[in-house]
Amino acid sequence: MGTVISIRIGAAAGNAGFPHDEALRAAARQAVADVFRGWNDRFSLYREGSELSRVNRGELRLTQAGSELRDCYALALAWRDRTDGVFTPHRADGAIDLSGIVKSLAIAHAGEALYGLGLRDWSLNAGGDILVAGDQTPGLDWAAAIVDPLDRSARLASVPLRAPLRAVATSGSAERGEHIWTTVDGALSPFRQVTVFGRDIVTADVLATAIIAGGRPALHRSTETFPIEVLAVLRDGSLLATPGLRADSA
User: Fold this and answer.
1) Alpha-carbon distance 179 to 163, whole Å?
2) Cα–Cα distance measured from residue 174 to residue 149, given in angstroms and rounded to the nearest whole number
């Protein structure tokens, strides 16, 4: 997926034997790597032999694809409807591109794999999109640091990832340039970067992309419809933050 994946395991109750159990650490690394490798092999548009590449070349009909691909496509279409078409799995050339949802699904499934190993206290970070589990000692919660898109060495805020908002996703142009299709007037989104805190990583990831693509109307619609918090950086560097985030960030 062209990104770095990191795992941090806490020492809270439920992670018996950690961090001294090397076998458990190795099993966690392998389980997460296997999940991401499987999703990448099937959905990457940079791999000629991937199932999605074959569908886009017309070598495989969508109806003949595996259930995992068809379910992922159906989920992307459902999110297209929920965002009034701002989030879409279709590129301008007609190709199906599921990259806007595949990484978050892989993160969610990797979290399930960690649970399957008996781990209950962990943080999983894939290219800046984060999912956490477990109750930390008060004052030592899992936290997400939000980087300033105008100065990658600076931090805008540090936000505790307390229940029920245990997932955070960021979209924008700072890392990869202008790569998100927009539906706003003009060529560029009014937002340079959007970070969404949600109850699950798929919702956070989709809405971060949708707000970048749809501008202020998408921001207002998303915050009114979904239980999320948002930190948005406008083109001039000014910030927009939802009330709950302003009260909880440092």
Assistant:
1) 32
2) 5
CATH number of 1-132: 3.10.520.10
pLDDT at 20: 58
Class of the 136-250 domain? alpha beta
Least confident of 66-70, 178-182, 183-187: 178-182
Domain boundaries for CATH 3.10.520.10 within the chain: 1-132, 136-250
Quick check: 189 and 215 in contact, CB under 8 A?
Answer: yes
d(CA 90, CA 92): 7
Dihedral of alpha carbons 196, 200, 202, 203, sign? negative
What pLDDT score does 141 carry?
80
Instruction: In whole angstroms, give the CA distance from residue 98 to residue 69.
Output: 9
Please, which residues have CB within 8 angstroms of residue 193's CB and are 6 or more apart in sequence?
A: 149, 170, 171, 172, 173, 174, 232, 233
Q: What is the pLDDT of residue 12?
A: 59
When pLDDT is averaged across residues 125-153 and rounded to a whole number, the result is: 86
- Segment 161-170, tens digit of pLDDT: 988 999 999 9
Residue written as token pair 């948005």: 232
